[in-house]
Amino acid sequence: MSLVHFASSKVKSLNADLSLPAKFRRLLNEYPLKEMFDKKSIAIKMHVGGHLGYTTIHPLFVRILIDALREAGGRPFITDGSGAIPGAKIRGYTEEVLGAPIVPAAGLNDNYYKVLPVGYHTLKDIQTCGEIVSADAMIVFSHGKGHGHCGYGGAIKNIAMGCVTGHSRGSLHQLIDTEFEWDEDHCAHCYLCRANCPGGAITFNKEGRFNIFFHDCRYCMHCVTSCPENAIKINTEGIRWFQVGMAKATETILNTFEPSRLLYITALMNITPLCDCWGYSTPAIVPDIGIMASTDMVALEQASLDSIKVENFLPGSLPEPLALREEGTHLLEKIHGKDPYLQIETAAEIGLGSREYTIKEVD
Ligand code: SF4
Ligand code: SF4
Predict the structure, then answer these.
(1) Minimum-distance ligand 2 atom for the alpha carbon of 202
(2) Which of 192, 208, 234 is the last residue of a domain?
(3) What is the mean pLDDT of the chain?
(4) What CATH number corresponds to the domain at position 199?
(5) Are residues 187 and 294 in the same domain?
(6) Measured in angstroms, how far is the CA atom of residue 94 from the centroid of ligand 1?
(7) Domain boundaries, position 189
(8) Alpha-carbon gap, residue 64 to 320, rounded angstroms
(9) Are residues 22 and 168 in the same domain?
(10) Ligand 1 centre from 73 Cα, in Å?
(11) 141 CB under 6 A from ligand 1?
């Protein structure tokens, strides 16, 4: 049973000391930061978002974390994918505001990396970002939200997709993107598949060739069922391959650190249906929950997902063509048609942590 610390975004009374930033500082005090990070270089892996997005982690929380790490004798720096860093300053991520340098994880040209083996399906290896590999310690500071490819984007996604180069991110995506067949000779171009696709995932190019954008695909099989010519086949294993691939890439990356130098923190605020990489924000789908932290990544992911409940869904928060479906149990599965627990299940199976947890709320 792993321990997950929780600072709720609810404020009991009108008192600044009972608000989330103050509770977040007390949450950090629950960890032996000096023992973990004194004299260590600490990569704080975030997703700094892009373009018009405004729902990434507020800089105030990043500053609180950095101040706590400096007080503990650590040498923190913020890092994210090389393409994301140059535009981060318009969202308030600057050294002046945060109190620590902001460094592209694989250098300015996304070419500072170390190749590490994964050996899963088509994912033989990953180009792991140099600033991650060379750091002494890592804090995985994630924004919990929905994700079109895997249902949920939290710590596993922050590590697997964010600690590798753009090339390896593409290789991870290919685990899901390559597994459909379209029989051109039998296609009558009636477009019933496209008309019956609830995700708007099907397109035909100028030459009339069919394609599926799997980010938006919900594996409902409407296209397969509605095709009068039996011209489409989809391998539903793709979603599992992607989620398992992410968990295995995460393992490879985490293995570059001593376990005692890792801390995972997830901000469950502005929980949008889609990832911050879209470059704009849409409304939150549930009310703010707060911040969770653990030294067990799997327990943190499980607790975070468990806290995003169907009954707390905020009607009107989904932009078209997103919609809540009957099928599925978790709220994010009802939106994306993908079981968000798969990645966590695999992470637990390969020994990255426990799905069993207890919550300790920080007042
Ligand atoms: S399986 Fe469903 S969501 Fe995916 S492309 Fe076919 S109709 Fe669209
Ligand atoms: S439903 Fe079948 S026949 Fe019609 S356009 Fe789609 S793939 Fe072609």
Answers:
(1) 6
(2) 234
(3) 93
(4) 3.30.70.20
(5) no
(6) 41
(7) 180-234
(8) 37
(9) yes
(10) 52
(11) no
pTM summary value = 0.89
* Interatomic CA distance for residues 281 and 50, integer angstroms: 10
8 A C-beta contact, residue 237 and residue 179: yes
Residue ID of nearest Cα to ligand 2 atom 4: 190
Q: Is the pLDDT of residue 321 over 90?
A: no
Same domain? 125 vs 216: no
Residue 323: pLDDT above 90? no
Q: Which residue CA neighbors atom 3 of ligand 1 most closely?
A: 217
Q: How many domains does the chain have?
A: 2
Which of 205, 234, 263 terminates a domain? The answer is 234
Whether the per-residue pLDDT at 352 is higher than 90: the answer is yes
Helix (H, G, I), strand (E, B) or coil at 320: coil
Ligand 2 centroid from CA 189, angstroms: 5
- Cα 187 to averaged position of ligand 2 atoms, centre (Å): 5
* Binding-site residues, ligand 2, Cβ < 6 A: 187-193, 210, 226-227, 229, 231-232
Report pLDDT digits (tens) over 20-57. Answer: 999 999 999 999 999 999 999 999 999 999 889 999 99
Q: Quick one: 229 and 314 in the same domain?
A: no
189 alpha carbon, closest ligand: 2
For the record, the structure tokens of 13 come out as: 């009374």
CB 77 within 8 A of CB 114: no
> 244 C-alpha to center of ligand 2: Å?
31
Best of 212, 214, 225 for a ligand 1 pocket test (most atoms within 8 Å of beta carbon): 212
Measure 152 CA to ligand 1 centroid, in angstroms: 19
What is the DSSP secondary-structure string of 172-191? HHHHHHT-EEE-TTT-----
Highest mean pLDDT among 121-130, 172-181, 239-248: 121-130
Length of the chain: 363
- Are residues 207 and 154 located together in one domain of the fold? no
- What letter does residue 67 receive in the DSSP assignment? H
Distance CA 333, CA 274 (A): 12
Confidence of residue 202 (pLDDT cuts 50, 70, 90): very high
**pLDDT beyond 80 at 9:** yes
pLDDT digits (tens, 9 = 90+) for 281-317: 999 999 999 999 999 999 999 999 999 999 999 999 9
